[in-house]
TrEMBL record:
GO molecular function terms listed in the Swiss-Prot or TrEMBL record: carboxylic ester hydrolase activity
Species, as recorded: Aggregatimonas sangjinii
Transmembrane domains' residue ranges: 16-42
InterPro entries per UniProt: AB_hydrolase_fold, FrsA_esterase
PANTHER family (UniProt xref): DIENELACTONE HYDROLASE DOMAIN-CONTAINING PROTEIN-RELATED, POLYKETIDE TRANSFERASE AF380
Entry keyword set: Hydrolase, Membrane, Transmembrane, Transmembrane helix
Domain of life where this protein originates: Bacteria
Gene3D superfamilies hit by this protein: alpha/beta hydrolase
Protein name stated in the entry: Alpha/beta fold hydrolase
Length: 441
């Protein structure tokens, strides 16, 4: 074979290599930017093989020409070994497992992930025999998963970013064995740890509000008002005088207006009118129904956390019109986040008190970080001690203005406004902080 024929052969090999690089690289790029999912491929590692095979074919003719001579074949062997090693490393892909993991959350079923679960997967301190039941329970009962993103991937370990509707954004690792099956899922480990800690905490917690003597002194009256989408919101109005300042009280998830059955009378005693409402996202509590939530379900209206913002907005309008003054908005857990999101931009709001706020809404609402950044009115944010670091992170580098603060309790504290219930451990320090804040408004 003459030199020109060899040159043409090399060119042909390089063209084939270039085409494979373009195809493989294009598929990888489309996967990275999300235009193609793993379900589009029979073999998950195909684009990696195409890309590296193309690179080998493209470079090999040139390298072969330069390597002929002493030790030439050894150089080519080293090149092949290096590319083979790179191919093996690059082919380490857990996207099938992660896709199955995500589908288990979406379908609320263990079936998609079942084939990728190692027999060694367990969640301490629970025996490994209970792993299937734990997985089924987690997938069935966790809030809606908005998104799952792979942040980092290496052999045996993947870092994942989760965005849950009520739990917010979380990051943690999953681990794999030599057969590429799940051996550890940190997200579930952390959730179990939190639940066990919560159960221990509940043993110390007052279970229900106790209105005692002040509850007899300050009796509420029932009020109703309409939201923008036509839902009638129910509330208990604790009124002591038309000229007194007014506080709107919003409950946490699964609760109703009776979360404030002993808080509102104390606020009356301090000189504040109060309206405790039932939001559409809530439930039966203290042997009392959530009337607004029941109505919303009967009328086929949405009852997600974010949907309750219009209930809070309508309550602000109701109080502003009734008392002809701005309203102090007080929220608990998810409703404290709504109080902040609504309060910072609503001209009818004078100040905000938020017990255990967080990013509970996924993509349905902006992060609280943005609300804190633009807040130009007084606010007090607080939580249990365990929640304080996450809340501090949301505040970020915001330069707090006068009468804007985060309170971190010396005691362990509790989630939401129940931290203030009569007899609750540490309630006194919360009350002292709230009173100090209100006096400065």
């Amino acid at each position: 074979m003459n030199t020109s024929t060899k040159f043409r052969d090399f060119k042909t090999i390089q063209k084939i290599g270039f085409i494979l690089i373009v195809i493989g690289g294009g598929i990888i790029l489309l996967k990275i930017i999300g235009l193609l999912s793993a379900s589009h491929f029979i073999e998950e590692d195909m684009p990696n093989y195409l890309f590296l095979t193309g690179a080998l074919l493209f470079l090999l003719p040139t390298l072969k020409k330069r390597s002929i001579g002493k030790n030439g074949s050894e150089k080519i062997s080293i090149l092949l070994l290096a590319l083979s090693t790179g191919l093996s490393t690059m082919a380490q892909d857990y996207s099938k497992q992660i896709d199955a993991f995500e589908q288990s959350f979406i379908q609320k079923s263990v079936s998609p992930i079942e084939a990728y679960v190692s027999p060694a997967l367990k969640f301490d301190p629970i025996p490994v025999a209970n792993t299937p039941a734990i997985l089924a329970n987690i997938f069935a009962n966790l809030p809606k998963l908005n998104a799952m993103t792979i942040l980092e991937s290496e052999k045996g370990k993947v870092k994942i970013k989760y965005d849950f509707e009520e739990l917010g954004i979380r990051e943690s690792h999953v681990y794999f064995d030599k057969e590429d099956k799940f051996t550890r899922i940190e997200l579930i480990e952390n959730l179990i740890k939190m639940e066990l800690e919560a159960q221990e905490k509940m043993k110390e917690s007052v279970q229900l509000p106790n209105s005692d003597v002040l509850g007899e002194k300050y009796q509420p009256k029932k009020v109703e008002f309409e939201t923008a989408d036509g839902l009638l919101v129910n509330g208990n109005l604790y009124e002591i005088g038309k000229d007194n300042p007014v506080i709107l009280l919003c409950h946490q998830a699964g609760y109703n207006r009776f979360e404030y059955a002993d808080i509102a009378p104390k606020l009356n005693e301090m000189g504040y009118n109060c309206l405790a409402i039932d939001q559409r996202s809530g439930g039966n509590f203290a042997d009392k129904p959530n009337i607004t939530a029941d109505r919303a379900k009967e009328n086929g209206l949405p009852t997600e956390y974010i949907d309750a913002q219009q209930d809070i907005e309508a309550a602000i309008d109701f109080l502003n019109k009734k008392y002809e003054k701005k309203v102090i908005v007080w929220g608990s857990s998810y409703s404290s986040s709504l109080a902040l999101l609504e309060g910072v931009s609503n001209d009818k709001v004078e100040a905000i008190i938020a017990f255990s706020p967080g990013d509970y809404f996924g993509d349905a609402a902006p992060s609280l970080s943005s609300a804190f950044a633009k807040a130009d009115k007084p606010f007090l944010v607080t939580s249990s001690k365990a929640e304080a670091a996450a809340l501090t992170s949301l505040l970020g580098n915001v330069s707090l203005q006068e009468n804007q603060s985060q309170f971190i309790p010396e005691s362990d504290g509790f989630h939401g406004s129940k931290a203030l219930w009569t007899g609750q451990k540490g309630a006194e320090e919360y009350w002292k902080t709230v009173l100090s804040f209100l006096e400065k408004i």
